[in-house]
TrEMBL record:
InterPro entries attached to this UniProt entry: AraC-bd (IPR003313), AraC_XylS_family_regulators (IPR050204), Homeodomain-like_sf (IPR009057), HTH-like (IPR037923), HTH_AraC (IPR018060)
Keyword terms, alphabetized: DNA-binding, Transcription, Transcription regulation
Record protein name field: AraC family transcriptional regulator
Annotated Gene3D superfamilies: Homeodomain-like (1.10.10.60)
Residue ranges annotated for the HTH araC/xylS-type domain, each copy included: 171-268
Coiled-coil residue windows: none
Secreted listed as a keyword: no
An annotated Gene Ontology molecular function: DNA-binding transcription factor activity
Name of a matching Pfam family: HTH_18
């Protein structure tokens, strides 16, 4: 069965993206979002590794992925899966949680797959309204959906462990990678810059982020590429700006993380200019 995907910005709720897709052979590489990933499986089964635990989400179930948590995504049955996804920012959900009188801080979803028919129906309605471009209905239903998810399925975020020398080195390494998208250091150089040895840093980095440094760097590059594409920069120039070898390199990694190619993402955002790219 043919794969298809559409990625676009929410017509009325800020800091929220949407995806409607059917995938059969497509596989999402291990990656993390800077916000939430909330979706409804419409048909089939999606299988995904989340922090070392394999989950399966079937039709009618809701998927809840927390920010900055490494996960994958692939078909769980031969026919693949179809779903509708929303990607709200941390600030948006934290703001709604505060309006509801919830505890201060980043909302957290302890379960990644839930069966909640009422929430599932609400998500489908909110997503379809956004797909139609009905701003009032989409904004009302989306905010109602997020509020219902927070009251029914969120919990206080688990407390962070006290900082150690290893975690301090990882934090410094992350900061360095943020500043070195185009010319990143080797593992040895990265370890030397934060006062650690290569293999202990590699273990601590993967334990803290779920990703080795090179995969984390790719995730950062894709994240930055999305911002530049939304600003209207041509994909070929974006590739160079974020450190990919060429546009084909950007296309490959972008689709593995976002689910659509850069040019399709840019067209959906309305910032694509004719002649920018021949990719679809």
């Amino acid at each position: 069965m043919k794969e298809q995907a559409r990625f676009w910005r929410h017509p009325a709720v800020p800091e929220t993206d949407l995806l409607k897709a059917r995938y059969v052979t497509h596989r999402f590489t291990r990656h993390a979002h800077d916000g939430y990933a909330i979706g409804l499986i419409v048909e089939g089964v999606e299988e995904f590794d989340y922090s070392g635990t394999l989950h399966r989400a079937a039709a009618g179930e809701v998927v809840l992925v927390n920010p900055d948590t490494a996960h994958t995504g692939q078909a769980g049955v031969p026919g693949g899966w179809s779903y509708r996804m929303l990607y709200p920012s941390i600030d948006l959900l934290a703001g709604i949680a505060a309006e509801l009188g919830g505890p201060y801080g980043t909302p957290h979803f302890p379960r990644q797959v839930v069966r909640d028919d009422h929430v599932a129906a609400l998500l489908a309605r909110a997503h379809r309204a956004a797909e139609r471009g009905d701003a009032l209905a989409a904004s009302t239903l989306s905010r109602t959906l997020f509020a219902r998810l927070l009251t029914r399925h969120a919990a206080p975020r688990p407390p962070s462990a006290p900082p150690t020398g290893g975690r301090k080195a990882v934090r410094e390494a992350i900061d360095l990678l943020h500043d070195s998208l185009v010319d990143p250091p080797t593992l040895e150089e990265l370890a030397g810059a934060v006062g650690a040895r290569p293999f202990p840093l590699l273990r601590a980095f993967k334990e803290a982020t779920g990703l080795p440094p090179h995969a984390y760097l790719t995730s950062l590059r894709v994240r930055r590429a999305r911002s530049l594409l939304l600003a209207g920069m041509p994909p070929a120039r974006v590739a160079a700006e974020v450190g990919f070898t060429d546009q084909a390199h950007l296309n490959r990694h972008f689709k593995r993380v976002v689910g659509v190619p850069p040019a399709a993402y840019q067209r959906a955002a309305g910032t694509y200019k004719t002649g920018d790219s021949t990719s679809t």
